[in-house]
């Protein structure tokens, strides 16, 4: 029995054995080109798989789609949510498009910070008793990088959750004198909103770093920094996110002034004492 809900791969897999040989040929092509599905028409699928356009249209209807346009819209919807699907491209063209997309992300990031919100977030980080940087899944490397930058500017900075650990014990002792940087780019795990709400109920100041498509309920005191992760390739790009981590840490360093410079001097001396760096 063919399932007529879920993504197209799930629908094909559920009833592949009930398809006709011609439909299976079209289905095989689709499964081999899921990354490109957002740009293929029914005519192109038919020509590439060696079947008629009528066969492709019949296959789509059996899978529960009205037409090829609905299939393309589903593929595009998945991409907007961060699912790694996208057209394959010639390497040279792909590099040029990638650079253009990265530039657009950086420009959008900077434009979104022009109202002073970066400085406000940095002042919060500089003055907090303790700073916890939280990141899940694909946001964890950004959180880890931000922590590594911040810990050079001030003490009492940690990243959470620790690998394999839960979140509650990381947050239990935090209060209004602390600060949390909560990094949550698209395809956030279930429970993300609950973490944000728990922090706000405890009046913990939060800096929320998210993609522009995030629609999250936030308190008036939560500082939101948006960062695009769009890419012409199959996977989201975190180049602008790493730049935001750099900008935020540098602004926190500037806000901390003398104590931060003294800390950096002490760390540098200890590097030499321990022989940790070349």
Please characterize this protein's 3D structure.
The protein has 278 residues and is an alpha/beta fold. It has 2 domains: 8-79, Orthogonal Bundle (Arc Repressor Mutant, subunit A); 99-274, Glucose-6-phosphate isomerase like protein, domain 1 (Rossmann fold). 52% of the residues lie in helices and 9% in strands. It contains 12 helices and 5 strands. It has a 5-stranded parallel β-sheet with strand order 2-1-3-4-5, sandwiched between helices. α8 (140-150) links the parallel β1 and β2 (157-160). α3 packs across α4 and α6 (91-112) packs parallel to α11 (239-256). The longest helix is centred in the middle third of the chain and has 22 residues, at 91-112. The radius of gyration is 24 Å and the shape is elongated. Residues 87-93 have low confidence and may be disordered.
